[in-house]
Every structure is written in structure tokens, then in C-alpha cells.
Amino acid sequence: MTDPILLSVDDGLARVTLNRPGRLNAFDADLAGAWEHVTRDVTTRDDVGAILLSGAGPAFCAGGDVVAMATTMGSSSDLEALAHAIHRGIRSLTESVVPVVAAVHGAVAGGGLGIMLSSDYAVAASGSRIGSRYANVGLTPDLSVSAHLARAVGERRALQLVLSDRMLTADEALDWGLVAEVVPDDGVVARAEAVARTWLDGATGAYGQAKRLIRSSPSRSVAEQLDEEARTIAASFDTPEAQARIAAFLRAAQDRTKKEHA
Prior knowledge:
GO terms for molecular function: isomerase activity. By secondary structure, this protein is an alpha/beta fold. The protein folds into two domains: 5-201, 2-enoyl-CoA Hydratase, Chain A, domain 1 (Alpha-Beta Complex), CATH 3.90.226.10; 220-260, no CATH class. 52% of the residues lie in helices and 15% in strands. It has helices at residues 29-42, 66-72, 76-94, 111-117, 145-153, 155-162, 170-176, 188-201, 204-216, 222-237, 240-260, and strands at 5-10, 13-18, 50-55, 100-104, 107-108, 121-125, 129-131, 167-169, 181-183. The strands form two sheets. A six-stranded mixed sheet has the order 1-2-3-4-6-9, with helices on both faces. The protein has a three-stranded mixed sheet with strand order 5-7-8. Helix 1 (29-42) links the parallel strand 2 and strand 3 (50-55). Helix 1 runs parallel beside helix 3 (76-94) and helix 5 packs across helix 6 (155-162). The termini are far apart.
């Protein structure tokens, strides 16, 4: 049996690849179970400092497998359980201190939009098409679309997507702020990996904590967020990573001063 998700870890980078290409990586029960397990694994491993999400075949993710829903689920409670399993995986990603980059291509629709939004930085292939399209099959948003879409693009634009069958081009998605970059179709995974490598080659822990601060901010008041910022920067100051970089910054500043007064 083919694994519904491919996972590899190399030099701190976890590559998580949705692997149902014949169904455009749409979620069925097997993929949902693998997603929950793999995301929990990669966000808790000591040897992972960044995660790259991608999809095998012609599309990143077309959401839920409607055919599987119609033919294998006996009741609405089965669908609810499926959604909860995928949601636990999304929470593993968004609540972690590991930054996530997505390499998206082809169709990104329905729940696939939510999977993309669970990344912290999305690189889109120029041929990508991105939309909601839940109402096309009489269903409502899940997989974090209602939780994250409006935060990403604003309420009015979020409503435009969920209240129509519009599919954005990659350039439109860039203009809306849904993705960070648009690159040629054949370079999307390589560019996403390059982004992840900048995190791994840089202050990895600081990047992870910065991601956590932004992602978790809606759960706090402004005063609480300021307190959390103060606590986090103080904790980061004591890390070997920060001490080494601060010392290097100080040396560079001293060298510049010497040259200016030479």
C-alpha cells in the first residue's frame, strides 16, 4: 500500500509530502490519520527546525475527497471525526515553534486552502489556482479556513472567496497576501526549500519563537501579549544562539567604529 504521506528529515528540514496524486491529494480517512500522526511527529522532534509542505502529482491539495465521503462514510459523525483528526494536525503545525513553508502548485481548493494556511510562508507556482469552493458541493469551510483566512486577507476578501466559486490566480493570491512569493512551476519546491534553509542557517530558535508569538497573539489581550513578548525576548537572550550572534554583532560594530576613526 502506498503511504498517503511521504516524510523525510535531512539536516533539520522535515519534508512532508501529501501523496494521493490520483485524487489531487484530497483527504480521505487514511490521509487524515497519517496527517495527524506525521504533523505531531515533526513538530515534537529535536532534529527538526523547519518543515516543508508539498503535494505529489498535479496539485497541492484539492481539499476533502468528496467521493470517499459519499461512499465510505455512514453518517455525519464520521465526517466530523475526519475533520477533527485533520484539525489536530493543523493545530500541531500552527501551535508549534517550528516554522512551516508550503510549496503549492496546481489546485488549492476547499480544505487545501486551510492546509496552505497552516503554513507560515507559502510559495506558489505560477500556474496555481486557489479558492474555497465548499458551497459547490453544499458544504461549509473546515480545515481552519474560517479560522485563518480572514486573518490572512481581511474579512471582506475572505467573504469573497467563501461566497463564490472564484479561483484566484497565483498572482492574485500574491496581491491578496495569501502567498508570499510566486515562482515558475518547476521551481516551487526548490524555492520553498531555500526559504526553509534560511531559517535553519539563521537563528532557528528565534524564528520559531517569533512564529509562535504571531500565531498565538489572538488568544491574548494587548497587555498579555506585551508581557509574553517581554518574557520571550528575555528567555531568548540567555540562549547560546543569541549570545553568539550578539557577540558577533558587537565585534562588527566595534570594527566599524575603528575604521571610522582610523
